[in-house]
Amino acid sequence: MRKELTMERKLTKTNYLKYILAIALPISIQSLFQSSLSVIDQIMVGSLGEINIASIGLAGKFPTVFFFTVGSISVGASILISQYRGKNDKTSISKAFMLCFKWGLILTGIFFGLSYFFSNSLMSLFTNDPSVTLVGGNYLKIITLGFLPGFVTTMMSALLRNTGKAKLPMFASIGAVILNTLLNYLLIFGNFGFPELGVKGAAIATTIARLIEFSIVLIFFIKHQLKDEYKINLLAKSDSVLMKTAFFVTLPIFLSELAWSLGEAVYGIIYGHIGTNETAAMTLIGPVIILSIGLFAGVSQAASILVGNQLGKSDYDMGVFLGHKSIKIGLIGTIIIGALVIIFSSIYPNIYSVEASTKTTTSALLIMFALVLWIKVSNMILGGILKSGGKTKYVFLMDLLGTWVIGIPLGVISAFVFDLNIAWVYLLISFEEFVRLIIGYRIFKSRIWIQTL
Q1: Which member of 35, 78, 206, 335 lies 3.0 to 4.6 Å from 294 by CB, making a disulfide possible if both were Cys?
Q2: Distance between CA atoms of 410 and 65, rounded to whole angstroms?
Q3: Best mean pLDDT range from 7-21, 51-65, 185-199
Q4: pLDDT value for 239
Q5: Distance CA 33, CA 181 (A)
Q6: CA–CA separation, 406 and 395 (whole Å)
């Protein structure tokens, strides 16, 4: 029996922290570096003015929809693999992985076609500024080329994490970010004889980095598949029982991520129609949002994996215990990070070459974000825990209610009826997170989400 599996069976209520951190830290680091691909684009394009900043911010909305939506497929696979690993059911692990992989490929093809062939049309949904539409459309078309390798990387990473190899995808992400930063420096500004491509250069750099990350993860995946006791059978075909289970686990996650990410796109439309400078300010806080939340992504996934393992073993009390502790870790961490964001809110905008009014708006938005950070991360961790039980419909209904019944109406009313400034619009939209937190925690406490698949 492998070392990882033996160690998992020794997990107790006194040593749980090292097991959570053993999974959470590599995943968080990978998440931070993966997020940095778009963050670095935004920061390095930040010296090119409001139009270019706004273009990248809005053009990134559709790839966000893509990665969250197809990412739901890998989340579904992860839930199934986590529980089947708890049962030591190797055959079902292969079947679940290959089934979700096929579903994801279909979705990737659909998103690729839409974003590549209709890039300018998609951009026109977000803004009335023709300059932003043109620049953003060109950026989106190039970024689209990284969709397929990005999805395959996500699936392989999910399997590696669930079989005790969370550090390997992290190394690939670190390499990709280093390469992306170097290529940005060369292609955005035309250094060392390279062409000065501006926003296009940022898109090319990010796409190349995704391809390199895919190649590295693929090498790790193949290497460890050759000697892993959880080796995936690429020809595995799902039986009707597993297919039904996978469908009812994955469909609500897919709908949840689709509803949430489309809602984020609608928020982008609301911000985009407030004004180009306001949109630029929202784009400027993007790196802080992504990095702050990404820092705790590992806690969410570690909670999902470890709780799922316990549910697979029918040790429900331990699963609930791990859930409680994961939420507490996130709460303490976000209070610290939120305080730091507030402290540096007036300093951060100065790294960009933008107008004084844009800097002022950026500072205000950072403070609003810091106030709701603990709620956002708590929801993320709660979502990972609730999904681990396989009753993913609860998370879907929470996201649907929060985003489409509360968040979007509040955004539209505050922006276009009361004509509030963008910082207050952002804060009112974030109220939906608070509602979801109350509902999600009540579901968690009730234990109705617990089951063994």
Answers
A1: 35
A2: 21
A3: 185-199
A4: 82
A5: 11
A6: 16
The C-alpha angle 438, 444, 445, rounded to 5 degrees, equals 90
How much of the chain is in helix, strand and coil states, percent to nearest 5? 85, 0, 15
| 329 vs 381: CA distance, rounded Å | 10
Instruction: Report which of 41, 60, 61 is spatially closest to residue 199, judged by C-alpha positions.
Output: 41
Name which residue leads in pLDDT, 214 or 21: 214
Please state the φ and ψ torsions of residue 182, each to the nearest 5 degrees.
Answer: -65, -45
For 56, other C-beta atoms within 10 Å of its C-beta total 27
* Residue 390 contacts residue 249 (beta carbons within 8 Å): yes
Whole-number Å distance between alpha carbons of 422 and 248: 39
Q: What's the rounded mean pLDDT across residues 79-103?
A: 87
Q: Give the pLDDT confidence of 417-434 residue by residue, as tens digits.
A: 999 999 999 999 999 999
Q: What six digits make up the tokens of 251?
A: 């469909």
How sure is the predictor about 1, in pLDDT bands with cuts at 50, 70 and 90? very low
Compute CA 30 distance to the chain's CA centroid, rounded to the nearest angstrom. Answer: 11
Quick one: how far is CA 373 from the chain centroid?
15
Return the closest-CA partner of residue 403 out of 266, 288, 283, 278.
Answer: 266
pLDDT digits (tens, 9 = 90+) for 222-252: 888 766 666 787 777 888 888 888 888 888 8
Q: Helices 147-162 and 90-117 sit at what angle, rounded to 10 degrees?
A: 160
Instruction: Tell me how far apart the alpha carbons of residues 356 and 63 are, in angstroms, rounded to a whole number.
Output: 30
Residues 6+ apart with CB under 8 A from 413: none
Model confidence pLDDT, tens digit, residues 89-100: 888 888 889 999
Which structure tokens are listed for 220? 């790790």
Number of C-alpha atoms within 13 angstroms, CB side, residue 357? 8
Using the 8-state DSSP alphabet, how is residue 119 labeled? Answer: H
> Which tokens hold the place of 44?
């390095």
More reliable by pLDDT, 240 or 37: 240
Residues 6+ apart with CB under 8 A from 331: 374, 377, 378
